[in-house]
Amino acid sequence: MMSIITNSLKMLTFGALLATTSAYATDIALDGTTVSVNDRADAGQGGWIYNVDQMDVSWGDDDTITVDVFTKFASSYRGRNSNNTYSDGSNHKNIIFGDLLIGANSASNSGFNYAFSLGDLYSGWNTRFSRIERLDQTNGGLYKINGTTSAGSYHGYSDDRGAVFGQTKGHELNENASTWSSTNEKISFSFNVSGLDAFREATSLSLSWAMSCYNDAVHETFAVNRGNSPVVDVPEPATIILMLLALAGIAYRQRAKSNLLSA
């Protein structure tokens, strides 16, 4: 009798362990520890204020991607950063923070197909944002894009220099799951890509950021490695209940059989 009870308890304990198993996933690994800094300006063409130093990237297990761009253009100068402070080019547009251009790419596609656009997507008569308006950090988010706008096109330069804005397509994605901030010498972006097929199927992640004049920029393509992201399947609640009932049935049959033999 004691052995039957012991075996029953072991089986029930096993069922309880199955019931309490939880999903587990580590951060997605981005293979590549360095970033590429644009050759236009090791010290920032136009002065130190335009220098871009590096970019740090992480992809969390909840599909939140965080990007930190370290740039003097976000440094504190006379109580504020340099965004929207200087005018440049034949179009006389103010130099402002560019978009974070994003490529969630697979073997069948490449290029920038998303962008983290800052502030309201306001298109004024002479600038993307009002000359006197500072970017509102409560706005901005992840958008699907169908092209990019170069610094040359935006500011009226004789050369394109490089892409600085995404041409947005549609509405913000995963609204309220995106934030950005600008602190001393750093711009941080955080956005969630869960439910977006392009990111789920991506084998590489391309990122690029520059201020609108593209006096300096940072960009890199990372290989997406999901091999370090094991996920343990969790049995459905109904399956767990059926398993426990089956174990209880086995224990009952063993006990009834033991009682019959001892009678």
Topology:
Elements: H1 2-20, E1 29-31, E2 36-37, E3 52-59, E4 64-71, E5 87-88, E6 93-94, E7 100-105, E8 114-118, E9 140-150, H2 151-155, E10 163-173, E11 178-183, E12 186-192, H3 197-200, E13 204-210, E14 217-225, H4 237-262
Helix pairs in contact: 1-4
Features:
263 residues; alpha+beta; eight-stranded antiparallel beta sheet; four-stranded antiparallel beta sheet; 4 helices; 14 strands
Proportion of helical residues = 10-25%
Measured on Cα atoms, how large is the radius of gyration?
27 Å
Q: Report on the biggest sheet.
A: 8 strands, antiparallel
Coarse morphology: elongated
Proportion of beta-strand residues: 25-35%
Quaternary assembly: single chain
Work out the count of structural domains.
2
List unreliable stretches of 5+ residues.
Answer: 8-25, 120-135, 229-234
Helices, by number, come to 4
Q: For the terminal residues, how far apart are their CA atoms?
A: 13 Å
Overview of this protein structure:
The protein is α+β, with helices and mostly antiparallel strands and 263 residues long. It folds into 2 domains: 2-22 and 233-262; 29-225, no CATH class. The chain is 21% helix and 33% strand. The chain is built from 4 helices and 14 strands. The chain has helices at 2-20, 151-155, 197-200, 237-262; strands at residues 29-31, 36-37, 52-59, 64-71, 87-88, 93-94, 100-105, 114-118, 140-150, 163-173, 178-183, 186-192, 204-210, 217-225. The strands form 3 sheets. Strands 1, 2, 7, 8, 9, 10, 13 and 14 form an 8-stranded antiparallel β-sheet that branches. The protein has a 4-stranded antiparallel β-sheet with strand order 3-4-12-11, with no helix packed on it. Strands 5-6 form a two-stranded antiparallel ribbon. Strand 5 (87-88) and strand 6 (93-94) form a beta hairpin. Helix 1 packs antiparallel against helix 4 (237-262). The longest helix has 26 residues, at 237-262. Mean pLDDT is 74; it is low at 8-25, 120-135 and 229-234.
